[in-house]
Fold this sequence. Notes:
Blueprint: E1 7-10, H1 26-38, H2 50-57, H3 64-67, H4 71-98, E2 104-108, H5 115-118, E3 126-131, H6 133-146, E4 153-158, H7 166-171, E5 181-184, H8 193-206, E6 212-216, H9 220-234, H10 251-257, E7 260-265, H11 267-273, H12 285-293, E8 297-302
Parallel strand pairs: 1-4, 2-3, 2-5, 3-4, 5-6
Antiparallel strand pairs: 6-8, 7-8
Helix pairs in contact: 1-2, 1-4, 4-9, 9-12
Amino acid sequence: MAYGGRVTINGSGSSSDAVPTGVGRTALMVAAMRAAETRRADRLFDDPYAADFLQASGGDPFGSENAGGGEGFADIWANFANYAPIRTRFFDEYLREATRGIRQVVIVAAGLDTRAFRLGWAADVTVYELDSAEVLGFKQRVLDGCGAKPEGRRVAVAVDLREEWGSALVAAGFDAGEPSAWLVEGLVSYLTPEQNDRLLGAISGLAVSGSRISVEYLHVDAVALMGRAMSVAAGEDVESMWSGCGIGEASAVWLDRFGWDSEAFDAFERSIAYGRELPPPGDTPIDRFTAAARNGFVIARRR
């Protein structure tokens, strides 16, 4: 039975006309990168809706117009624009492989992710998207305007990931007795080590043996470099946004504590495999952050 077009939003309400603000605004930065990648003849993935999110938000607030306003911002955008397509392609491949046997996918802090529409899911795969009501409301309005239909079944669950959210996911239909595949992309740098522990603990409590997870791992030191680089580019102190955030131990140690066997992947090596070699880093704070982030792709299996 085909599930195309079946979309549910659970959780507290929010105006679907609102453009994401605060941390939710970073979803637009990712959409800008994905739109730019989609325009390339040698693109590593195709996101047909990324440009629509930007248009609905009033344009790209992170692209060429602002990049030209200061050398620091241009450097940050160039580094992110080089790295992010590698990240997206890596996680696309992880989910395609994981769903060869797993029928439940949970995308944590899904933002404006459109994998439910573009990865060729089987009809019996359910994709759960966790994010704020504000982000999911805006996203749904744009997707409805495009006539977008998910390839499997998509269930959007509005939650605050800093609070308890597992019960909302189960209420939305997630079966904690069946294996699941989880994706945590672009989130750990906004949470403290304690909050990241709670997040992984909640996931682990819902993931039975044989479940999979992939994480963009960022140590607290790498996140501190990101904050410093952003402060240099902005000409003001924005470092406090990321103060004390990230994960405080090696990825293998962190995941092992919660019952996962993990393998780490280097983004630079992946970029070579994808035919899009990343440029070698220099010695600016921006470059050092980028170099640190390149080691942060992790895939793990629940014991």
